[in-house]
Amino acid sequence: MALRVVSSSPAIFSSQRRAASILPYSTVTLPNNSSSLLSSSSAISSIDRTKSVTLRSKTSRRNGVVTCSASSVLPKALLFDCDGVLVDTEKDGHRISFNDTFAEKELGVTWDVDLYGELLKIGGGKERMTAYFNKVGWPENAPKTEEERKEFIAGLHKRKTELFMVLIEKKLLPLRPGVEKLIDQALGNGVKVAVCSTSNEKAVSAIVSCLLGPERAEQIQIFAGDVVPRKKPDPAIYLLAADTLGVDPSSCVVVEDSGIGLAAAKAAGMTCIVTKSGYTADENFSNADAVFDCIGDPPEERFDLAFCGNLLEKQYVS
Question: Which residues contact 170 (CB under 8 A, 6 or more apart)?
Answer without folding.
Answer: none
